[in-house]
Amino acid sequence: MGSLLIREWAGFQQFPPATQNKLIDLLAKLKQENVNTLTILVMGKGGVGKSSTVNSLIGERVVTVNSFQSEALRPVMVSRTKGGFTLNIIDTPGLVEAGYVSYQALQLIKGFLLNKTIDVLLYVDRLDAYRVDDLDKQIIKAITGSFGRDIWHRSLLVLTHAQLCPPDELNYDVYSSKRSEALLKTIRIGARMRKHDFQDFTIPVVLVENSGRCNKNESDEKILPNGDAWIPSMVKAITDVATNKSRAIVVDKKLIDGSGSDEKGKLWIPAILGLQWFIVKVIEQAIKKDIRRDVIAKGNRLY
Amino acid sequence: MDPKASPSHLSGFSSFSPSFDDVYGNDNSMKNNNLELDNNSKATSSVDESQNGGFVIGEEEEEEEEEVFEMASEKPSVAVSGEKANEGDYTDAPSMDSPVFSMTKSVLPVEKVSVNDDDDDDETHVVEVSQVRVLKEEEPLGGGGDKGIKGILGEGFVNKLEIESENKGLRGNDISVEKRKSEVVGDEQSVETNELSRVGEVESKGVQITDEGDVVVDTINVDTLGTGAAVVGDVERIKDMEIKGLEVPVDGNVSLENGSDQINTNDEPPVELKPVQAETDSQKKMESVSSTNVQTTQVQPSEQDVDVPAKDIVDNHEKEIAEIEAKSDIEGKQTELEVERVQPIGQDVDVAAKDDNSCTGNVVVDSHVKEVAEIEAKSDIGGKQTELEVGRVADVVEHVSSAKVDAGDGEEIQAAEHEAESNQVNSVHEAERFENDKNSVDSPDHSDIEVSLEAEAEENHHQEEDYDEIEGSATDGETDGMIFGSSEAAKQFLEELEQASGVGTHSGAESSRDHSQRIDGQIVTDSDEEVDTDEEGEGKELFDSAALAALLKAATGADSDGGGITITSQDGSKLFSVERPAGLGTSLRSLKPAARPNRTNIFAPSGLTSGRQTETNLSEEEKKKLEKLQQIRVKFLRLVHRLGHSSEDSIVAQVLYRLALVAGRQTGQLFSLDDAKRTALQLEEEGRDDLNFSLNILVLGKTGVGKSATINSIFGDEKTSIHAFELGTTSVKEIVGTVDGVKIRVIDTPGLKSSGMEQGANRKVLSSIKKFTKKCSPDIVLYVDRLDSQTRDLNDLPLLRSISNALGSSIWRSAIATLTHAASAPPDGPSGSPLSYEVFVAQRSHVVQQSIGQAVGDLRLMNPSLMNPVSLVENHSACRKNRDGQKVLPNGQAWRPQLLLLSYSMKILAEASSLSKPQDPLDHRKLFGFRAPPLPYMLSWLLQSRTHPKLPTDQGGDNGDSDIDLADLSDSDQEEDEDEYDQLPPFKPLRRTQIAKLSKEQRKAYFEEYDYRVKLLQKKQWREELRRMKEMKKKGKVTAEVYGDMGEDVDQENGGPAAVPVALPDMVLPPSFDGDNPAFRYRFLEPSSQLLARPVLDTHGWDHDCGYDGVNLEQSLVIASQFPAAVTVQVTKDKKEFNLHLDSSVAAKHGENGSSMAGFDIQNAGKQLAYIVRGETKFKNFKRNKTTAGVSVTFLGENIVPGFKLEDQIALGKRLVLVGSTGTVRSQSHNAYGANLEVRLREADFPIGQDQSSLGLSLVKWRGDLALGANLQSQISMGRNSKVAIRAGLNNKLSGQITVRTSTSDQLQIALVGILPVVMAIYKTIRPGISS
């Protein structure tokens, strides 16, 4: 985890005082829960704003962002400490390439995450996209397949480009809830969660606006069209997830290599062998019996 | 290929030494020939370019002028070079100047009006209108063209002004038109030509001019020039006629012509019309500019013409007045001005004005537009003539009775159309009578005249229609007939006029003459002549008649005659003068000739004669095509107008430019942008709803990007339901609506999925789309994506590929990348600050275009011009709107009109290109499908030096034909050499194994010795052969067995001891044995008969295996046992083309020193077959000098191209050969001149040693463009096993090529040198400026 030099969270000072206060509260709450390290994994399609979100969260330009090219070809972990609390954020390359989920990228990410513990997953998509398509589902599936279904218990849905004017004269809240519902549904389907599973927990949705022209409130916090200062809300959502009852995902060899299907059925091998042997035996007997009957029949005819 | 052919391949314009063939090792002459063709084509193309750049046509021939015109029409930049020499003296000057002008591309017209000498005559100051108005168009599109035209006009004005000054005090009146910067230094009058000033400016100027009076008129003309070159030309003509300034006018005409060939004259009027419009507006205000323009143009010419005649008839003073009046007419509302100014003249003028008015007024506008279109459609000549005729008739009528008569004529003409000629003639006569009457009537009241003019205008409308019809139907013959009629009528008119009322009649006659002039550039010149005569005081009538005759001739369509007549009349000095009728000669003044040169240069050749010819040569199809093109253009302009865009918009300009390109050569008057604009404007103002335009749009794109919303926005209506989160569109459906009178049918489609896994679903959707598109194929495809979705990682590739696969990648050709959500804020850039909107859009567009390109898999990525256009869309209801309620993008652009414009443009272009499709879009210039043959190519073909077939007996003999002077090899030399070889100690070649044992030094020494001996042996053999040949010659015996066909000069040069009778250079085997190489497979081993047959290898082919694409057959035979003949046929065929090349020649020997050859060749020239009959005689006048003279006639399509050449070959010493040749070919009164000079330097013992170099210079002058090319070839042996051949060519357009060939049997690594050309090619590609 600490392979990189962990630097002081200088960007923290860049936040507006109001945000800083809120964050300090949240961090204190984390400490109460005895959480001194938080590792956040950021995943999503390319170009939805993962890196920008990381930058916003850290408050520094730690990851280069390019609107028209994917800069992050491999995962990058950014670590910052603040008063004994360590924040690790792992930015990852986009999971889609040429219309398909890039399992190569996924493999890279998994390799990078080896022996790390993921406290929170930020699944990033855009708020201002209207449709959810099959590709999203596949991405969810891929993530689920890689890190297990449980990872969704530690995840947040982050919707970027949240500063928008909804189409069709829709109310902003209605629009964003519709959009997040659509995505959550996809996640549910993609992760193959059963209804009641899903009802047990809800994936929090966080709206994000990373643009420099994001509106700000009187205390200079970036706010969403609905007036929320989104950075504190996001951090709050993160802390909530980090402190919920679910288990953090530890990425170990086993997880990376897959579900250990080699091991799974080993015990059954002798049993199956025995079964086979038994069946073969039965068939053999049947055949022999048949032959015998045949011979007898011939003998009868001879005589 | 035969040796004969081989030189040709090698040589572009300059013939390279044949020996290179070996180096290249290519047998295939065909390829080589093709290469030559290319060279030629390049040359021509370069010429064009230069023309495009704005040529000043100096003394160049008609051909040149035509091209210039064409070019001008195509590209706005027309440099009119009208340089006028001073009246008397500077004949040459024009040509020189003109080039200069052409060169100057500065936007500002350089009009240098220098008043040259005053001739003896009173005030005749010839303003030399040497002003070059090299107006360059800044914009490639129409705007530029106009400007260029304007520039030309400016010149013309200057001339006129000067002329006027000469005539009378008018000079004082002459105002310097400031519009253009051209200053007329002439008579104190500085006419400043306006720079590229548009119509508006011109108009204003024109108005000023009118105020001033005569001078004003001139200026007006200038203005008109600005708008349309043609007008100026007319004015110039008039002026010239009056003053001596004929020359100047000629220039103007020429310039006009340049703008648009023969049609140009017509065009010019339209152009003038525009300026006139301004004037008219000022005066009449009521007239719409566009309409007025058209009218004015027509009127102007007539007016001008009229003016001229008036001048002629009336005394100088009167004439001047008349002229002035005419000018005024032209400028604004001609009639009024004229009347006001000089009443007596005014009557005449009035008449003219009436004509003009009528034309300009009602008729003119429509007619012009229509006429222009029609004319275009029709053969240029025919159209022009017909138009001219009509114009003439109208003029006559007008003159007679300006209003009524004209109308009558017009009607008659309309009715008659084809038959109309006779009718027209009659009408003309009638008209003349009427005119006479009317003239008298008119003269009293100007107002009356005006009224009549109006009436005429109505009539004119009719006439316009008629014209159209006439154009369409009228044949040349008809036109001729018409012309005659008109001429007769004109004569009658003249007589009548004279009898009736001195001034009035004069004017009438003049007008008639003018009309005739108008009709043709030639006519104009005639009119000039007339004017001259008038000035001289000679019998006006006579002149008139002469002029009429000339006019008639010109009109009749004898292009050459007409041109000749005109030219001769103007200046006797020129070539054309010869053609001039004897009768006219007397009328010529000494002064005129000087002036004329200019005219002839600029004017007569190209515009008049050639132009007509070309027009006449236009096939019906082409006419139709042009007509359609013009219609398309008008349609497009109307659409643009409806969208509220100006024609200066870059997209519009591009489209217009491309349309002009499609129109190709024949973009004369028939295809005038100005006319199109006027027509469009007029139609729009009339609110006609006859726009035959509909648009089928297919909308494709990912789901949820806003396809349906975009459709709704386009229609401004909720045509289809949209939904943010659910599939808004579930099936393909058609939405029909009307936008701006354009019926738009949109195919809305369900959103496509970008996921690679879902392409199956996409395919379903796409197949249903395909079904739909089969019913109505889409004109435009909108590929919709979001501007703000930063799609990366090629996410859309599967989708795009699916589209390409399902609908064919051709749909991308009509695709517009439509980016919705265009109002979204740009993302943050790398610096953290938001990107600028432009950068954002550009980047995103690039990404989308690139994706499309990648999906299509073509080379779009490399060529930005092939990228799909991008349009931005913002459908959000909260989108900012401008005052008109149109949604605007953050950059302030209203996107909807932009999108529509783009769509219209693409559809228009598709329509236009579909018109030209049948022709093969690649050679829209018909480079080799020529209506006008590629003269430079013919020239180089002609200039090739050929070998004469020889009798076996004579093979290698030292006859006049032999390229090798046997005498050079002195006997003593031979003896010595032989001795040298014989005296060598015996030498035993070593075996390979033995060589391997040698030390390095030893090996080197061994090889040196070996090579030396081989060389000596070869020399010895060579010499023996020569000696034997000599002996044979002496004995006169045939030892055919031994020598067979040997002794072809080329072979000798090529291969040294050409002991094997092979007509084609032997196939060069690859240096290494490669089983795949077909050279081994199809090796032609042993000729078994006289008929040589062999495969033709395309060594330039990419395919390693299948380089053979043809067969070559050749045979040498002897006819009547004394005439050697050789026939070579080569047929090649590949996927693209089939080529046939036949060479046959028969030679006859005249004694020792002379030989004649007759030949017949057939070869492909483009898509046509060219049949060439040639003959030449070679004689050896000195020991070391051989001279060849030859003629050739090429039949290419309908063209007959005669050519003549002269060649001289001098051997300087043994090593140096100097070959100079010059020749000319002529086609359709275009001449191309060429000269080659070549120096060959050979190794001392040439046949054995292969080193040689040649430097060739070639000069080709064609259509006013001088193409200078230099070629250097050098072949050097490097070491003992390698040879390097370098070939470099460069021309004066700074395009060139370098070829390096190395062949070696040494180290293979050396083959890496072969990479050099590849590197060069890449380098050139990267920096296209270097090569072409």
UniProtKB/TrEMBL annotation, chain A:
Pfam annotation, one family: AIG1
Listed InterPro entries: G_AIG1, GIMA/IAN/Toc, P-loop_NTPase, Toc34
Primary location recorded for the protein, binned into one broad class: plastid
Segments traversing the membrane: none
Compartments reported by the entry: Plastid, Chloroplast outer membrane
Domain AIG1-type G: 35-259
Any single GO BP term: protein targeting to chloroplast
Enzyme class name: hydrolase
Membrane topology: Single-pass membrane protein
Binding site for Mg(2+): S51, Q69
Keyword Chloroplast in annotation: yes
Top-rank taxon: Eukaryota
A Gene Ontology cellular-component term: chloroplast outer membrane
GO molecular-function terms, A-Z: GTP binding; GTPase activity; identical protein binding; metal ion binding; protein-transporting ATPase activity
UniProt keyword annotation of Secreted present: no
PANTHER family: GTPASE, IMAP FAMILY MEMBER-RELATED, TRANSLOCASE OF CHLOROPLAST 33, CHLOROPLASTIC
Family of the protein in this entry: Belongs to the TRAFAC class TrmE-Era-EngA-EngB-Septin-like GTPase superfamily. AIG1/Toc34/Toc159-like paraseptin GTPase family. TOC34 subfamily.
Record's function text: GTPase involved in protein precursor import into chloroplasts. Seems to recognize chloroplast-destined precursor proteins and regulate their presentation to the translocation channel through GTP hydrolysis.
Subunit structure: Homodimer.
Protein name as catalogued: Translocase of chloroplast
Natural source organism: Acer negundo (Box elder)
Automatic annotation (TrEMBL), chain B:
Gene3D superfamilies xref list: P-loop containing nucleotide triphosphate hydrolases (3.40.50.300)
NCBIfam families, per database record: 3a0901s04IAP86 (TIGR00993)
Source taxon at top rank: Eukaryota
Biased composition (Low complexity): 1-20
Organism: Acer negundo (Box elder)
Protein name: AIG1-type G domain-containing protein
InterPro entries for the chain: G_AIG1, GIMA/IAN/Toc, P-loop_NTPase, TOC159_MAD, Toc86_159
Similarity comment text for this entry: Belongs to the TRAFAC class TrmE-Era-EngA-EngB-Septin-like GTPase superfamily. AIG1/Toc34/Toc159-like paraseptin GTPase family. TOC159 subfamily.
Record membrane topology: Single-pass membrane protein
Region (Disordered): 1-98, 252-305, 456-482, 499-538, 597-620, 948-987
A GO CC term assigned to this protein in UniProt: chloroplast outer membrane
Localization, UniProt: Plastid, Chloroplast outer membrane
